[in-house]
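Methods — Computational structure assignment.
A single polypeptide chain was analysed. Its primary sequence is given first, followed by the predicted tertiary structure written as structure tokens.
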Amino acid sequence: QVQLVESGGGLVQPGGSLTLSCAASGSILNFNAMGWYRQAPGKQRELVAAILTGGGTNYADSVKGRFTISRDDAKNTVSLQMNSLKSEDTAVYYCNARRGVGIVYIYWGQGTQVTVSS
């Protein structure tokens, strides 16, 4: 059973920074891609950033230039460095992992709250 555990959320002022971390229970090399999604109250869950096994990345337009996703294969972790945070970044952030071709298995963490407020 794959487990993804997020950490690093919290309260931060606008313009501040936070780093989220996602620890997987096994090797992240088993996944085709890992990423971060977020869901704000009353809104749909949306992709924030994703990183492929080969290192390619993809970002939502709203976070480009402010957020950076990275992976540490040795530690089986994926991180999201968030800079220049805005109030609209407030949401529950979820770690996501995908495995398989054709039949795709998707795994989610439990989520971590990020609140950007003065």
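Note: The chain has a mean pLDDT of 95.
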